[in-house]
Amino acid sequence: MKSSEDGDAGTLSIGALAARFGLATHVLRHWEAMGLLHPGRDAGGRRRYGADDLTRVATILILKEAGLGLNTIRSLSATVNRATRHEILRPAAQELRSRIAAAQASLELIEGGLNCEYEDVTQCPNYGRLIAERASPRSPAGDPVTEAVAPTS
Residue 28 above 70 pLDDT? Predict the structure, then answer.
């Protein structure tokens, strides 16, 4: 039997599981080495993946898409304690909030450029405000000083 074919008793080979999720087989081996997957073995010692493994792979992919690293995912899979789960996820949530805020600021800048009626985008009031904020001295707390330099025309 080729390693990419489905096996007996509703299990999948490493090739079949990898293909199902669009992964390379070495990814599944790496996840196994990290303790994220625990496939069974057939009589010949080949990995066999069942329904629980399908669920684990889908879970890992969803958590990776959410921005979590494999070490964080491993920590999450090792706990059933709600408080521990919160300790693990809280920094990830804050990091994601920061990335969302940065992306939102970038989108506002781009939309400002799209909506600017001036030929030269540097003449747009919103652009000038952003440049003035960036160029102004900052207080130790990281807030712009109130006497921000006004853009010159």
Answer: yes
